[in-house]
């Protein structure tokens, strides 16, 4: 799978924190960056001083956050020349664990997540069609191709990265942060790797259509296609959820 994300998406992840001085907030932001694929496996993190400046916190706070990340197995620290803190992408969880996660969510919560995501992703797609650069479209095309071969949790990550790229192409830092926050909280739920056979091909076709609409500058079509894409995902998850609860 393609590595790295657009500058806008990464900038949103490393934007100054609203609650200054909280190691937990820095930890959460970096966990999101790793699990969402904004930081690639084995990628070196900025220095403690650079992270502190980006987040608007002290180096002590950053140091505490890195300790927490090491304890979670998401970062490793290497000493000596060429050393530093390096990303360790988490191993893919089993399908059984994803199913258990879906089982514990109520149907009303699932619908609520979908409604929120529709508002954010639909608006992002419309603005991306109006504001995206040729480079943005190229990244969307690459993100679309990731869906073709991705399976399991890699397919889930590819879905999330595609929508992050759409938000970044909207050229709205606040909207991109909203996308990042929503994905951090519940985006993994919406794109759980539970799709039946053939769904990946459908997702690939839907992503291509959304990207084409953005490339053509058709904001209303881009919004419509994105909303339909998300509604289909919600319907599939609702069906699986009900099957899991069936006696």
From TrEMBL:
Pfam families: FCD, GntR. It comes from the Bacteria. Residues 20-90 form the HTH gntR-type domain. Keywords: DNA-binding, Transcription, Transcription regulation. PROSITE patterns: HTH_GNTR. The keyword Transcription applies. Gene3D superfamilies: GntR ligand-binding domain-like, Winged helix-like DNA-binding domain superfamily/Winged helix DNA-binding domain. This is GntR family transcriptional regulator. It comes from Amycolatopsis azurea DSM 43854.
